[in-house]
Amino acid sequence: MAPLLQADNLTIAFGERAVVHGISFHVDAGETLGLVGESGSGKSATSLALLRLLPPGARISGSLRLAGEDLLALPEDAMRRHRGSSIAMIFQEPMTALNPVMTVGRQIAEAVLVHHPKLDRKAVKERVLAAMDEVGLPDPIRRYGDYPHQFSGGQRQRILIAMAIVNRPRLLIADEPTTALDVTIQAQILRLLDDLRRTHGLAMLFISHDLAVVAQVADRVAVMQHGHLVEQGAATELFRNPQHAYTRKLLASAPTMRTDRQQPLATLAGA
């Protein structure tokens, strides 16, 4: 079976400077690919390229195929129909992604109406409340009219997830979705994403600098360094037997219960 998403020789440049260098990877239907690397490695640029949301002046070459359709070749109106429908994204920081002066119910409803403008108000609200309930937001009917600042950090992230899944996308891009959360809430969000993936058969591109987080959710892992993909493989095998020196440094820089506290953690300087 062909992959749901196939990137071939993807290159991204700003002016004369390339930030992603001819990378190729795929995501199968229903699986999670973890895309990992330190800040500046090209992870987020790659995710924005999938949605064609890079800033003006960015140059993209290669191909990005979703179910065989080359996203880079689509006219803008056709691409707009994919965003939030067949491909959705969860951003890193809810307070900048959510509109602070709009109720959360209305914000999720707008995500529905963009792709289903003929739905009546009652049907839209039913979809919104169902999405809020599905992501574990308590008392959706009462909280429908609340504003983002009235929710905790973890609840705001759940609101973003509700906006992402309300139209039942085939591919979910999660860009550092737990970075701003404490460990307990982080675990809850990771569990929620995995449950949604299994329930709806979602494919997920999970982007993170944290290998420990990726280990909890990914079926396969692709490691980026300076815009290059340096290693790819099944998560269990990559964590057990990393082949590239950069991957080994990433693993060594993450503390575990067996880490010798008398020794400094490995660093990525000069990687």
UniProtKB/TrEMBL annotation:
Pfam families listed in its UniProt record: ABC_tran, oligo_HPY
Localization (cell): Cell inner membrane
The keyword Transport is assigned to this record: yes
PROSITE patterns: ABC_TRANSPORTER_1, ABC_TRANSPORTER_2
Keyword vocabulary terms for this entry: ATP-binding, Cell inner membrane, Cell membrane, Membrane, Nucleotide-binding, Translocase, Transport
Lipid bilayer topology: Peripheral membrane protein
Matches recorded under Gene3D superfamilies: P-loop containing nucleotide triphosphate hydrolases (3.40.50.300)
Domain called ABC transporter: residue spans: 5-251
Record-linked InterPro entries: AAA+_ATPase (IPR003593), ABC_Ni/Peptide_Import (IPR050388), ABC_transporter-like_ATP-bd (IPR003439), ABC_transporter-like_CS (IPR017871), Oligopep_ABC_C (IPR013563), P-loop_NTPase (IPR027417)
This protein's GO CC annotations: plasma membrane
Gene Ontology MF terms: ATP binding; ATP hydrolysis activity
Signal peptide: none
GO BP, one annotated term: peptide transport
Family statement: Belongs to the ABC transporter superfamily.
Record's protein name: Peptide/nickel transport system ATP-binding protein
Lineage: Bacteria, Pseudomonadati, Acidobacteriota, Terriglobia, Terriglobales
